[in-house]
Amino acid sequence: MTTTPKPSQERAIGTVAIRWHGSSLELLDQRLLPGEEHWITLEGAAGVAQSIRDMVVRGAPAIGISAAYGVALAARHAGGGDWKAEIKQAIRELAASRPTAVNLFWALQRMERIFHACHSLDEAVKRLASEARAIHEEDLAANFAMADHALEFIGAEAPFSVLTHCNTGALATGGYGTALGVVRRLHEEKLLADVYADETRPWLQGGRLTAWELSRDGIPVTLNADGAAAAIMARKDVRWVIVGADRITANGDVVNKIGTYSLAVLARHHKVGFMVVAPSSTVDMATASGADVAIEERDGIEIREIRGIGLAPEGINVFNPVFDVTPASLIDAIVTEKGVVHNPNITGMQALFG
Ligand SMILES: CSC[C@H]1O[C@H](OP(=O)(O)O)[C@H](O)[C@@H]1O
């Protein structure tokens, strides 16, 4: 599958968050955005696993791409003794970094298949680096293809507004975006009136990352509190809610950032379209439904504090799930690089993903 990047894609292409240098990997520390653009240089899988766990790099596709490079680094810096054991340990460490985004496990399985076919350390260094780059480049190409499929599906002839949640742009992918890739193409085709970006508590991926990405690219964006989404759908010309995904199960259920499920309920109530945009590396046909997916829960301090400033009584009990499950019945379209599943259900998912 080859797609020719459009002008906006040329500009947006790029290693916005992930830079591979052969014997090191640079990650933009997304925890410090928008105030500071600081790059972390890593030379081993353990550092990549920690960066994923600490959300230096986040976003399902970006997590998979970074983990793939982490395996390549393990080979590149293997001691030469029991190099196979070192690479197996690296894969285990990376697999334990975060539990929900299936892209992580999909990427590691691809790397493991290459690893098991290698008969020498030299061969492993070369082939694992090549496979990691291929995973990165394929994700970027998938971003472009998804944007094209989405625009064809939406079929708009005049500008309209969208609402999005979390960050699904170049920072979360191979360098262009899933839901934000659609936003970029709409803007390029002069079909975008405004983007309402949920700030997306508690990590504020919307306020800190999406607003940063879109304003940096000259794309209209209006930041809103998560709680304002209903009023926006009631009062503004929002035609579509467009979000990403961390895992899409065989029946079309979508696991995504906490707050996505409530957006889907609101969208259905307000007769606003609800679109999920994700590469096929996010589709998990081996898992029957969203009820079967491990939902990451993170430390309550992320709710109680922001950068050390208390927002709630110290030690207050917190429920901090990072994702929720949106049932397929509330989704109008799942857009992947392989095509669109309209009104998703198990039959539609099997037709496209087998
Ligand atoms: C294209 S990114 C997909 C997905 O990943 C984000 O989660 P996180 O920031 O916790 O890694 C968010 O759920 C996005 O929708």
Produce a short descriptive summary.
This is Methylthioribose-1-phosphate isomerase. This protein has helices at residues 7-12, 45-53, 60-76, 83-95, 102-116, 121-154, 179-188, 205-216, 229-235, 260-269, 301-304, 346-353; strands at 18-20, 25-28, 39-42, 160-164, 192-198, 222-224, 238-243, 247-249, 254-257, 273-277, 283-284, 305-306, 309-310, 323-326, 333-336, 339-342. It has 354 residues and is α/β, with parallel strands linked by helices.
List the helices and strands and how they pair.
Layout: H1 7-12, E1 18-20, E2 25-28, E3 39-42, H2 45-53, H3 60-76, H4 83-95, H5 102-116, H6 121-154, E4 160-164, H7 179-188, E5 192-198, H8 205-216, E6 222-224, H9 229-235, E7 238-243, E8 247-249, E9 254-257, H10 260-269, E10 273-277, E11 283-284, H11 301-304, E12 305-306, E13 309-310, E14 323-326, E15 333-336, E16 339-342, H12 346-353
Parallel strand pairs: 4-5, 4-7, 5-6, 7-10, 8-11, 10-15
Antiparallel strand pairs: 1-2, 2-3, 8-9, 9-14, 12-13, 15-16
The structure holds the ligand CSC[C@H]1O[C@H](OP(=O)(O)O)[C@H](O)[C@@H]1O.
